[in-house]
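>> received
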Amino acid sequence: MTSLVGRCSADVRAGSGPEEADYARGVIWIVVAVVALAAAPLTAEAGATTAPPAAAQTSGTIIHPLPGPQVFPESVAVDAASGRYWVTSVKDGTIFTGMVGSAAPATVFSPAGADGRTIATGIAYASGRLAVAGRQTGKAFVYDARPGRLIGPMRTGLPPTRTWLNDVAFGAHSDAYFTDSTAPVLWRARRTRGGYRLQRFLDFTGTPVHYRTASGAGGINLTGSRRAPTGTIW
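>> returned
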């Protein structure tokens, strides 16, 4: 599933057009279509301007549209055991959910602005927990995936110009690790008795990992995180 998410990101970027609305709708078609069926080819066109009202099947590919004209999906997490997926919106922080392959339309798991989440980038699932990155807000969230209850609201404590929480992965003991594309830090949301606490896990200052500013989104550097079967976070 990880490789599918990576492929999805590349396809979305390559297929996005100059018009914001077309870009939003095109991403809706592509993101969950790639994740939905591992062996299926990508058949939805990136420039599509309409979406079906519920899950549709085209040449073996299941397409799950997300509700709303300006969704801008960013990241996908999947519970492999149940088939449930969650998608974040980089536009307003909404988290959508649905079942892979189901004809039922996706629904809102957590609405825009809930818990102070006005934007959402990376999302990860493990052991009944969802971790969500809040980009330049510096906010990080951990939810109980079943009731959608927030159990870990956190902040980096840095101003928007100095932090950009981008991607997230779970490690051992249900700890979540967040990459930061602006601050040279790998953050860890460590599980505590009362919930979660965000702390600096690694500081990349003085290491071969060199951060630099870039045009566009405030410095795109360390953007991905995955957990290998050995437990290594990379």
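>> The two ends are 16 Å apart (CA to CA).
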